[in-house]
Design brief:
By secondary structure, the protein is α/β, with parallel strands linked by helices. The protein contains 4 helices and 6 strands; from the N terminus they run E-H-E-E-H-E-H-E-E-H.
């Protein structure tokens, strides 16, 4: 059996401002910290994916918004990698990290449900990874056309029924993810 990786996407200061209030931020951080501890205990790896925006963007490396939320527990053995698009696989080192650690199962979490988390879940499924998308392991903001909870519920349903070589994602609460 291959190892698993918890991927935590874009949980950065610049995405969690008063102007971009995310659904259940504090609850999500607590769930991700608990999930990361279980993954580490089960010999899996934790990968923090950080968006690197262009100059002038709040997620540019020169800006305070680039940093991972201080409430998230990042340990020295965790991996931190950069991305510049919604897909954490596109032009990044993610695939190489997964191969180096013999990772076959992914648990994909983070921000924002309807952008980077969704794109990465779909990309992982298309690549044949066994993928879990914890139903309460991602967040977004209210959009003009839908509330955050509706967006989250919609994506959870789509990921579970996604047509891919290995089937859709397993969708369950963070507390039910075993490793």
């Amino acid at each position: 059996m291959s190892a698993s990786a918890l991927i935590i996407i874009d949980m950065q200061v610049g995405s969690f401002t008063p102007a971009t209030a995310r659904h259940d931020t504090h609850g999500l951080v607590a769930r991700l910290n608990a999930l990361a501890a279980r993954v580490r205990q089960g010999s899996g790896i934790v990968i923090f994916v950080r968006h690197d925006g262009p100059v002038g963007d709040p997620h540019h490396s020169s800006q305070p918004g680039w940093h991972i939320l201080p409430a998230l527990e990042v340990l020295p053995a965790d991996k931190i990698m950069a991305k510049t698009a919604c897909d954490a696989f596109l032009d990044t080192e993610l695939e190489n990290i997964l191969k180096r650690h013999d990772i076959g199962e992914l648990v994909i979490t983070g921000c924002a449900t309807d952008y980077c988390v969704d794109t990465t879940v779909r990309s992982a499924l298309a690549r044949g990874y066994r993928t879990t998308a914890p139903s309460d392991g991602h967040t977004t903001v209210d959009r003009p056309h839908l509330k955050a909870l509706q967006i989250i519920a919609h994506h959870n349903a789509i990921w579970a029924d996604f047509i891919a070589p290995g089937g859709g994602a397993r969708v369950c609460p963070c507390a039910e993810v075993q490793r």
